Amino acid sequence: MSRPTIAILGAGSNIGTAVASHFASLKFNVFAVSRTLHASSEGIHRLQADLIDPSQVTAIFDTIQTETGAGPHIVVYNAYGMTMNDPSAPGYPFNVPLDKFEHNYKANTLGAYVAMKEFTTLVPSLPAITSNSHPITPTFFMVGNILPWSPLGMGTTLGTGKAATAHLIMLGEKFGKTGARYYFGSEVLEDGAGVLVGPVNGKAHARFVEDLATKNIVKKEDWVENLRFFAKDGGEYEIYKGENYVWNF
Ligand SMILES: NC(=O)c1ccc[n+]([C@@H]2O[C@H](COP(=O)([O-])OP(=O)(O)OC[C@H]3O[C@@H](n4cnc5c(N)ncnc54)[C@H](OP(=O)(O)O)[C@@H]3O)[C@@H](O)[C@H]2O)c1
């Protein structure tokens, strides 16, 4: 039987590499996309593209379809763009240079939109396939944060882009007709606070995405706009069920 496929769009040294390695160990075809080509390791196909360019996003899906004969059963959109606002400059918090705002919007939202469009179009043609005997639900996972619900003055471009993409995810989940599932998933701390200091946990993201796609751990009726989870020892995770939307300084 052919293998299932995952595409990680924005695959750097942290979440991208952790998700890629995890799914390679599950015998997926793994395509890891970044602007610059990172060193490859066994079972991981590295592809170069700038996701701010819609034609390059489409080309990635074409390449994956050609190489696998199908397309990705799972897409993780991890690329992001952020320009810190200067609190001491006039116009704060609307003082990000326009070219930066536009560039960040393209990385956070436009690239994700094109990826969702390509993914959703090909889902009906995906072969039914299992991973460790679990049927795989076609899944689009947007790596999120709490900014859409808890803005920071310094995070105008990232928050705007994530908020818009959270809306696209909501559209996919509520109105999609293919049976694919769409998630905006955000790592938080145990008390619900956003992860301000230190890297987010790549292994926990990997396990979470696997369980979403193969174990139906979030049923349609339990779906929420921002699916928050916190990392535990050994790359485990737990879904956060509290109400806190805070950034701790
Ligand atoms: N939950 C939270 O509170 C929280 C906190 C921090 C971060 N995050 C989220 O975590 C994600 C990133 O985490 P990470 O640690 O994995 O970051 P990372 O290691 O820097 O990976 C990001 C990757 O995205 C790629 N990328 C960026 N723009 C791109 C573009 N235009 N085209 C193609 N690739 C592009 C980068 O490519 P290059 O390697 O070529 O530069 C890099 O490989 C982001 O979505 C961020 O918003 C969430």
TrEMBL record:
Give the domain of life: Eukaryota
Record GO terms (molecular function): oxidoreductase activity
**Official protein name in the record:** NAD(P)-binding protein
Q: Which species?
A: Ascobolus immersus RN42
Family named by the database record: Belongs to the short-chain dehydrogenases/reductases (SDR) family.
Give the Gene3D superfamilies listed for this entry.
NAD(P)-binding Rossmann-like Domain
Database matches in SUPFAM superfamilies: NAD(P)-binding Rossmann-fold domains (SSF51735)
Question: Which controlled-vocabulary keywords does the entry list?
Answer: Oxidoreductase
